[in-house]
Specification:
The protein is flat and about 45 Å long. The strands form two sheets. A three-stranded antiparallel β-sheet has the order 3-2-5, covered by helices on one side. It has a two-stranded antiparallel ribbon with strand order 1-4. It is of the alpha+beta class and about 130 residues long. It has a single domain, classed as Alpha-Beta Complex (Adenine-n6-DNA-methyltransferase TaqI, Chain A, domain 2), CATH 3.90.220.20. The chain is built from four helices and five strands.
Length: about 130
């Protein structure tokens, strides 16, 4: 995984044959947020159909929300958010954040759909520039 892109040549495991560190069952619409070296933005929005249960490493926080996950994903990939996450990380060579500390970060979510779409476009444009 690299900045929101899944390398489809990687081996995908189902839960029964996955390594012990792969325990997060993912579904379409979920977000995987890298808890190790979050500044590398190795995060993923699952926008593809999943026919069989697939699991992800526990090195990722699994984000599932009842609101607009695509907006949440772009927000979490924003540099300002990443800086806030890094403030809560421990370690120097492999800075990492645990899922509890990650869940305590603030995400500002606009009430109106138009604002959400505008902000999503701004996040996307900013990511494409960098």
């Amino acid at each position: 995984m690299n900045e929101g892109t899944l390398d489809r040549s990687l081996i995908m495991y189902n839960k029964s044959n996955a390594p012990s560190r792969a325990r997060r069952v993912i579904s379409k619409g979920d977000i995987l947020y890298s808890t190790v070296r979050p500044y590398q933005n190795n995060n993923l929005y699952i926008d593809f159909a999943i026919e069989i249960p697939i699991v992800a490493s526990t090195g990722f926080a699994l984000i599932q929300s009842k609101i607009d996950n695509k907006f949440i994903y772009y927000y979490m990939c924003n540099n300002k958010y990443t800086i806030e996450v890094l403030k809560r990380c421990t370690g120097t060579s492999y800075p990492a954040i645990n899922t509890t500390d990650l869940s305590n970060t603030m995400i500002i979510y606009p009430k109106h759909t138009m604002e959400q779409q505008k902000n999503r476009q701004l996040f996307l444009h900013h990511r494409q520039k960098n």
